[in-house]
Amino acid sequence: MSETATGKPFVSESRVRVRYAETDQMGVVYHANYLVWFEVGRVEFIRKLGMDYRSMEHEDGIGIAVVDVSARYKYPARYDDELVIETRLVAARGAVVKFGYRIVRAADHMLLCEGETVHVVVGKDMKKRLLPEKYAKRFAAVLIS
Amino acid sequence: MSETATGKPFVSESRVRVRYAETDQMGVVYHANYLVWFEVGRVEFIRKLGMDYRSMEHEDGIGIAVVDVSARYKYPARYDDELVIETRLVAARGAVVKFGYRIVRAADHMLLCEGETVHVVVGKDMKKRLLPEKYAKRFAAVLIS
Amino acid sequence: MSETATGKPFVSESRVRVRYAETDQMGVVYHANYLVWFEVGRVEFIRKLGMDYRSMEHEDGIGIAVVDVSARYKYPARYDDELVIETRLVAARGAVVKFGYRIVRAADHMLLCEGETVHVVVGKDMKKRLLPEKYAKRFAAVLIS
Amino acid sequence: MSETATGKPFVSESRVRVRYAETDQMGVVYHANYLVWFEVGRVEFIRKLGMDYRSMEHEDGIGIAVVDVSARYKYPARYDDELVIETRLVAARGAVVKFGYRIVRAADHMLLCEGETVHVVVGKDMKKRLLPEKYAKRFAAVLIS
């Protein structure tokens, strides 16, 4: 992948527009929704690597369960704002995968929120499993060194 | 069940308190959340009949898929309001079950919303199935005639 | 607008991709989320008419409160499905506005859900108000006759 | 407050039952919902101190905006589980308030999730403000020393 060949980490960008349902009575986005957007970014990241989270679940019987989440809120997103979710892979070793996120406002690139999620690869029984080799290889190729 | 013996329909009452996450920037509850509360009422209704939706799914392999929803919003619920969800069974025939709901504010019994949901009993393959006899009997006993 | 000039009603199309957060343990989309997608369609419809729901709230101090919702679920949407929300205006008279929706799967145009929402124009005090003339005109122009 | 007089920190307990809407297709609770439960715990904590978040917003014009969230997921919550949210105040200085949470399964006290939230007191303009004295005093009284 050229991004890693040039030494630049691979960053996937996804866009969402803030829905009315995502606001709260403070007039801004309710904070838990950023975690949903992290997931939107994560799924797109995986798709852009040529993989597909849906078939990881259906065909390989694995899931990527969240075990750790953190987020820092810098500035509130508001209704109808268009947002860019920047997602990058931070670590992938054995059964553990870690992603990092930045959510910026599309209009002026203002940073609204950043965060990380740590995941453990699990089988349908919710027990830990190694990430299958075919996925591990692609993750390794875009890992921020 | 005494309620039906006396000719009065069985109405299950559940309580919820409005969460901050459930409000929107209009300062009231976002309308889709009432459907979640209908479900809270429906589950409690089933539990009060001595059944358990969780084991209906796990042990009997059936689900109660929603096929039709309607709701009329009379007055907005607000953050931190305590609400009473009144649930009753309206119909149960073959694979079809219908519930009715009234959501009232606990403080003054003001009616905020009323609605209905129609369900079809399905197997794990999402295909229509008859409601197992043991459930059908209990539903029949509390049906509003 | 050419659509009405030719006698065809104006239908706005919006796209969403099903998020993991929107699924439930039945393995399909939780039914209340369709109401959120109706709202996504409604906002886009208004934007395509050259109006902006955000400024309707901020500049004109009006909101479009939901007073009635109905939905029929035909076939379940699943995780990662791309969906098209088709929105049309069904009525707009005085303080009342009514929209109709069809949600179809992008891949094969299969109809998953259809529904209607009825709204009342309200001021910041949640009291009924007439729809300002500038909006009423544009709505009238695309009304299905 | 006797809890602090005896040197034991004040811990508020709230109960929730997992809703169907809160599960995802992995068959467990979607991780973002724990943040909503943290908020349920936080509001109850404040209520048990004899304060009321609703009137903090309405009468004092202040909000408690979330600026930092972290959560560790130990074991999945499942549909219909009854959960206990244990909330304690970890810090309260100037405009900053920090809460800690443990979410345990009521049936067997199994720890499912723990986390922290950091908040900044803001006015209606979303600008930082000192916590009014009357609230600061009560928070100080139950602070874990």
Biggest beta-sheet profile of chain A:
5 strands, antiparallel
The SSE order of chain A reads HEHHEEEEH
- Sheet with most strands: strand arrangement of chain A: 1-3-4-5-2
Structural class, judged by helices and strands of chain A?
alpha+beta
Q: Which residues of chain A form runs of ≥5 with pLDDT under 50?
A: 1-6
Largest interface: A-D, 21 and 21 residues
Radius of gyration of chain A: 16 Å
Q: What share of the residues of chain A does DSSP label as strand, in percent?
A: 35-45%
Per DSSP, the total helix count of chain A is 4
| Total number of strands of chain A | 5
What oligomeric arrangement do these chains adopt?
A: homotetramer
Q: Assign an overall shape of chain A.
A: globular
Q: How would you state the average pLDDT of chain A, rounded?
A: 91
Helical content of chain A stands at 10-25%
The end-to-end span of chain A amounts to 14 Å
Task: Report on this structure.
4 copies of one chain form a homotetramer. Chain A is of the alpha+beta class and 145 residues long. Helices cover 24% and strands 37% of the residues of chain A. In chain A, strands 1-3-4-5-2 form a 5-stranded antiparallel beta sheet. In chain A, strand 3 and strand 4 form a beta hairpin. The radius of gyration of chain A is 16 Å and the shape is globular. The two termini of chain A are 14 Å apart. In chain A, 39% of the residues are buried. The N terminus of chain A is likely disordered. Chains in contact: A-B, A-C, A-D, B-C, B-D, C-D. The interface between A and D is medium-sized, with 21 and 21 residues. Strand 2 of chain A pairs antiparallel with strand 2 of chain D.
